[in-house]
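Dear support,

Our group has been running a series of protein-ligand predictions, and this particular one with zinc ion is the one our PI (initials K.S.) wants archived with full inputs and outputs. We had some confusion internally about which version of the output was final, so please treat the block below as the authoritative record. The input we submitted was:
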Amino acid sequence: MSELNLLGAASFGLVVLLGWLAGGIGNWAADVLPRRPAPAPAGGDGRVFWHYLTLFWRPFRHGICPHCGEPRPLRAPLLELATMAAFALVWWRFGATPVRAGVTCLYAAFLLTVAVIDLEHRRVLNVMLAPAALVALFASLLPGPPSVLSAVLGGAAGFGFFFLIALIGRGKMGAGDVKLAGVIGLMLGFPAAITALVIGIFLGGAAAIILLITHRAGRKSTFAYAPYLVLGALVMLLMR
Ligand SMILES: [Zn+2]
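Confirmed final output from the archive:
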């Protein structure tokens, strides 16, 4: 193995490790943020970080946390694996431009956590959307696409597009999805954001039809749209 390959292997390992840690932070966010404002016990909740980083122990413990005895959902290791895979893909795609790779990893970790929380709670949290919008706006000042103008246009177009859908759909599209479309717009810029959101709408529509014809959901069932918007956004973040 040449020196260059060794360096490549080392940085790949580091990126995947960072993806694992980011997945753990995602698990923390998915466990804690939807339940706020809950009274915080003095001195924290006493949980160690292994409560949120479950990949190494969960398969051998039947999902029971060895530290607090609480059952941990299958979502925990799945989110860790998905975030690691996303970071690895970003490294493969943008490894030569570290700033862009870093920003894209941050977006991927945020989007995957949003998808998990929407699946579990049917909510997209303002406490996550607001900082993400600010970060995306600041990131547009960094080298690489999108430019500030493109980001602002993308944000306005994404928000406006979904605001219209929400008006026409009379409540079938939630306010959280409209705001998420705006944040995805800021992250991707115009016109990539529109492509991402259209991909998301088609994926969501296809999933809804499959759920209906397999009778796994009725006409009145609630439907989490954010995971499909997230998929569309992830595809475009890697493709653009
Ligand atoms: Zn625990």
